[in-house]
Predict the 3D structure of the following.
Amino acid sequence: MTTLGEVLKPFSKLGYMEDFPLADLTGQIIGSAIHVHTALGPGLLESAYQACLCHDLEVLGLVIQRRVRVPLVYHGISMNAAYEMDVLVADEVIVEIKAVEKLLPVHQQQLLTYLRLAKKPVGLLINFNVPKLIEGVKRVVNTRGSILQDSK
């Protein structure tokens, strides 16, 4: 069995991601997801992958929050909308976990919406239902800030 440290080693210096925000942190998350996928393979429920990924991230000493409500403020009023991001890592990176046949544009748009509503810089969309996990990873950067500007 490959250890988490062995899986993360290639992600410690991701030269191709140097210009991306939070490259080191997202590299650790992707490496941890690969570790989970290597151990479990495709075909499980999202909740199983989420539990294992969160465990590995906590082992690395990262602060994680699960099922975090995404605030929706409309014209200065906080709406009680039922949006929840799967995992928030280090209060910076939103991780949306999928176990679907293929990622669709709506999945990426959902993550981008969460990034904007929560005012976070970067997110990872990870589909565990693939033969090689790297084929199921999409990195999304919030280039526009929040969705709704305060209209005062």
